[in-house]
């Protein structure tokens, strides 16, 4: 008989149905987003996950490691998809539209809105270098696609502005009454081309080609948010 890893569960049923490690991540994500990292104890995480408190430390060395896993889970899929788009055979404006659309959709489809953790002050401390490296890599790809679209060198601020358009959906989802239309990802991608100085490319053919690219890459890589209980 194969023994399960870790201590016996406090609650025999797994809240996510995907095992103790994912139960910890899911519980922590919910608590961190709703009440903040500093105000969330490992005891509270364990309770929400239906586990003994010691089980949290069986899977993770610290609460900070849990936070790192959560934020990496939001940025790494976008970075990987961006890398695939960067190598695709298509005009810059199509690729920029595709990246903005895909990145926005990933943030919108995350059941817990874990992108809100990007603004946690703890991320400015030590131990989160891997997150910042991935996010910086994503920003550089935005900058490269801006250059391909406009034909001019893109300053880091320009890439940050376009990423800001995308990540604004995180803040909108935190509002008591979010103002997000069903076609938010399309609108943000359109706005990015206008910011890039290419409003003439905000057209049906641009969208169609970009959506074809995104759908093909998502199907190939499975870069969608993990299911949540």
TrEMBL record:
InterPro entries, sorted: Homeodomain-like_sf, HTH-type_TetR-like_transc_reg, HTH_TetR
Segments for region (Disordered): 1-20
Highest taxon of the lineage: Bacteria
Keyword Magnesium applies: no
Keyword terms of this UniProt record: DNA-binding, Transcription, Transcription regulation
Regions of compositional bias (Basic residues) in chain numbering: 1-10
GO molecular function per UniProt: DNA-binding transcription factor activity; transcription cis-regulatory region binding
HTH tetR-type domain ranges (all copies): 18-78
Keyword Transcription regulation: yes
Chain residues forming the annotated DNA-binding region: 41-60
PANTHER family for this protein: HTH-TYPE TRANSCRIPTIONAL REGULATOR BETI (PTHR30055:SF234), HTH-TYPE TRANSCRIPTIONAL REGULATOR RUTR (PTHR30055)
Protein name in UniProt: TetR family transcriptional regulator
């Amino acid at each position: 008989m194969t023994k399960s890893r870790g201590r016996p569960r406090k609650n025999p049923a797994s809240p996510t149905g995907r095992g103790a490690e994912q139960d910890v991540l899911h519980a922590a994500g919910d608590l961190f987003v709703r009440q903040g990292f500093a105000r969330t104890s490992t005891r509270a995480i364990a309770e929400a996950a239906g586990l003994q408190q010691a089980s949290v430390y069986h899977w993770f060395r610290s609460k900070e490691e849990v936070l790192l896993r959560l934020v990496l889970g939001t940025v790494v899929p976008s970075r990987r998809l961006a890398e695939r788009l960067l190598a695709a055979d298509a005009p810059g404006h199509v690729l920029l539209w595709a990246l903005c659309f895909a990145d926005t959709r990933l943030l919108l489809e995350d059941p817990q809105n874990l992108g809100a953790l990007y603004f946690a002050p703890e991320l400015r401390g030590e131990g989160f270098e891997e997150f910042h490296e991935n996010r910086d890599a994503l920003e550089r790809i935005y900058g490269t696609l801006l250059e391909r679209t406009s034909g001019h060198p893109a300053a880091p601020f320009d890439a940050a502005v376009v990423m800001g358009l995308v990540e604004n959906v995180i803040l909108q989802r935190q509002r008591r009454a979010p103002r997000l239309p069903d076609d938010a990802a399309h609108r943000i991608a359109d706005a990015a081309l206008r910011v890039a100085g290419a409003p003439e490319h905000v057209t049906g053919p641009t969208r169609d080609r970009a959506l074809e690219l995104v759908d093909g890459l998502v199907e190939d890589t499975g870069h969608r948010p993990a299911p949540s209980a």
